[in-house]
Predict the structure.
Amino acid sequence: MVVPCPMAKGLGPVFEKKVADKEAVGEPVAALLDPSGDIPEDSALLALLANVLDTVVDANEHAYQQDADPALVPSLTVFHGLRAPPIGVEAYLVRIAKYAKCSPACFVQAVALIFRLAKRDAAYQLTSLNVHRLVLTGVLLSAKFLDDHYYNNAFYAKVGGVSTGELNRLEVEMLQLLGFRLLVPREELEQLLADAQAGCLAGQVVARWRCGRKRRSMGPDDGTALSDAGSRRNSPAGRAQQHGLAMRVKSSDAAAAAGGASAPTAVIAINPVPLPKEVSFEPESLPSISVGGGDAAAWSGDVLVVAVSEDDLEVKDEVASVKGEALAALDSALGGVLAELLAAGGFEGKQGQRTRPLRVLGAKAANVALVGLGKREQAAAVADWGQSPYQALGSSIAALCKEGKLKTAALALLAPPAQPAAAVQRLASGALQGAYESTRFKTKASKAAKLQSLTLLGLGDADGLDAAIKHGAATAVGAILTRYLVEAPPNVLEASECAELGMGLFLGVAEASHEPAKFIHLVYKPEGEVKKKVAIVGKGLTFDSGGYNLKAGAGSMIELMKFDMGGSAATLGAARILADVQPAGVEVHFTIASCENMVAAKGLRPGDILTAASGKTVEVNNTDAEGRLTLADAMWYVQEKQGVEAVVDIATLTGACIVALGGEVGGLFTPSDELAAALTQASKEAGEKVWRMPLETNYFDGLKSSCADMKNTAGRYGGAITAALFLKEFVKEGVEWAHMDIAGPVWNDKEALPTGYGASTLAEWAAAQGK
């Protein structure tokens, strides 16, 4: 078979002219499909494939304009961009061929894979917004599949004009969508070329999706159309706008778009996923937790989880066997299933270890699993450092049920804990936090079964267990609220009142943002006598670009700067916990100076001098050290206007603290040994890691300014300490103060999720102040 020039008719005059200019009379299909050959940059094959792709794109976009039925608006995918790239499809193919040196077969197979996706799911129909990424990813996969030699993803990303990280994600996405089936039969490739020659492929593909496939709706969009013609509700663009599409129509075609005879030439720009207009700050549902009685072997449900300590087992050659009497008795009652689980190896009862659920025939529990508690003497309800073994136990149960899609679970404890109520509180908190899964910003709800109930067995007749479960649930909901707020994109006193109070530092940071600054003040007041008034002040930078000292380059983490309000999220999470727990004797003020740190002509500049609410003047030598400025005014407010006796501020303040303590430990700075001890104990109760850092007063020399009372940053070294020393300048004499730098533990890099860190520690500390 030969690809002759005359058969290109129907694919457009541009292609026909290109073929004529090259004086090509055809290329054998065998050569085109040979994976060992090279493709010349001026190959007619690239023009042929580009025109096929362009034809399909034009047909699809024309169809969207003519009958944008709300039920047929396509979903966003990771292959969609916000706007069409300026480079044409053929030029893009030529660029890839020039630098990647792929065989001709790679390009043919890439197009075949793209059409295979389009046939499988209408969300992947070609438009000008996704064709380039689909082509690049298809060629990359085809080269790896067909060619003996190929470049790595970083090289392809550079050639294709995307980041390596994005191309990695696109590659995985396409592989999964294709079911990892990359083999395209030679007959299918030959048929594709034959259809391309005949000019009928595009019509076939468009006909398939228009006649037989229902496309998924995207939901309402908060955006507006980008032209007057496109904003009309009854026009194609107007209807598309209602369902997540905005159409940018060329002015010369505006009349046609408004109902003229000829179809408009348009570029469809799909907006980012529209966010829900109403966002709940409470979890949609959490499992119920209760205390049960009776024999564990008689419990009926999806999975019976047995908590096993290292002392209950005997390990030989890395395989454990039953040793403890209580475990042996339960194993016997269950027909030896526990011994069977242990015989598989890999489980020694260590904290965090767990087995897969084993399906059991003849038992009342459908499945049985083991979870490790660690050494019995170390299984205290409150750990000296980090998470309680019982909180970790609850998290493991939730993870086990999530992975196994199990709805009902029971935990069998072989012996009651030394402090039953304290253990149950932390177990409940761990289970509820582990069961939580955020789906607020996902277009598809998870269909996986969720844990609905957890029954605790083997606790005996201990008192206060129901209250402990309630306390644990309150802690979990507060931590989940903290995570809710941190994960949300950056999307109360008013600013005028803050100006009247002289909050020059806070308002100076907020100046460059289009979003108005908000000063948030909540108060918890107990019934009866107030023994102490305290304040929790959270840093509330909803997004931190760095200002004119822009965060740039590798390691700047600008893409994660939505978490720069992690301190304020922990503050609100603590407020949520205390609202449920209702401790006596303490009045708590929760204060947040919330704004963005952006770049604008009217924004804060290096060298500016600001006046704080306290009257101190500050020379700004780094606009990316903005959090301490907002905190300083908020701290003054709770001391001067509310008369609190103790202040704890919490902030994602410095990268220096991450360097010092890593990603799991928060830094604690305070001149008060008593307050340090109280916060350290609170962190133990909460299962969160806190480490006291020095407040070396000699380092304050670096903050001295020649033209103001102080600067907002010092030298390169000891940055976490000098930030704390800056804040200390805004503490009134006689007021206890501590600063918590949580830049590290606020975010889990491995999971790419917020942790909810800080809320539980703050709530435990505040609740203890009224005792």
